[in-house]
Amino acid sequence: MTSIKIKFRPSSIEGKTGRIYFQVIHQRKTKVHKSSYKVHPTEWSNETSSFVIADGNNSRATLLNEYQSSLDNDIVKLQECIDLLIKRDRPFTANDVIRLYENKTHAQTLETYMITLIDNLKEQGRIRTSETYQCALDCFLKFRKNKDIYFDDITQEVMERYESYLKQKGICMNSISFYMRILRAVYNRAIENGLTLQRHPFRHVYTGIEKTSKRAVQKHIIKNIKEVQLKTGCSMDFARDMFMFSFYTRGMSFVDMAYLRKKDLKNGILTYRRKKTGQQLSIRWEKCMQEIINKYPSTQTTEYILPIIRKVNLNERQQYRNAMILVNRKLKQISSLVNSPLPLSMYVARHSWASIAKSKRIPLSVISEGMGHESENTTKIYLATLDTSVVDRANHLIIKDI
Question: Of 254, 285, 283, 258, which Cα lies nearest the Cα of 271?
Answer without folding.
Answer: 283
